[in-house]
Specification:
With about 230 residues, the chain is α+β, with helices and mostly antiparallel strands. It is built from 5 helices and 16 strands. Helix content is about 30%, strand content about 35%. The termini are far apart. Keywords: ATP-binding, Ligase, Nucleotide-binding, Purine biosynthesis.
Amino acid sequence: MEKIYQGKTKDVYSLGDNQILLQFKDDVTGENGVFDPGANTVGLTIEGAGKSGLKMTTYFFEVLNKLGIPTHFISSDIDKVQMIVKDAKVFGKGLEVICRYRAVGSFLRRYAAYCEEGQPLDSFVEVTIKDDERGDPVISEDALEMLGLLNKQQYQELKELTKKICGIVKDELAKKGLELYDIKLEFGHDKTNNQIILIDEISGGNMRVYKDGKYVPPLELEKLFLA
């Protein structure tokens, strides 16, 4: 098993045969010791965060796979905090696709002159470049095409897939009285057939969820959701 990448919240190992092992860690993104799913730096370490994230990720990927949504998920081992996935090639150096149902986080910081915190949004989708040095800048559909990252057809496919996936996640959370405010996804090409698939994770570490108007932290979210 060869370690090929050390990420903020996961270490990545090659298993051969187009399979990858993800080792979840207890590091989470944020700033000054405060968790923030939109941050691009490790802000703190929370004991049990890796296992909590893997439990939610396993739940959601199994749901998506049963519904025929293309993902990289193969299997997981909760005790070892590991997930085996299909090897995938990211777009460029990596893109993040955000779906927003309410105005919070960076959306609110950018557009606060035109909206209020928590204002409803109609599953608004935006794409950012994974680039820590430049603060993961938002990129437009035209720029994605001009820079050779996504063509128009791929962009529409990614947008539609994002809305479908996030709608499923939102509905699943709503069953437990939880409201999804926003969520960040990642996609890539399956190296075996070039199909666009969902990669990375779906957990409290990459979404903002509220209950009765109050933000629910990642570990508490997993306990409420999977109880």
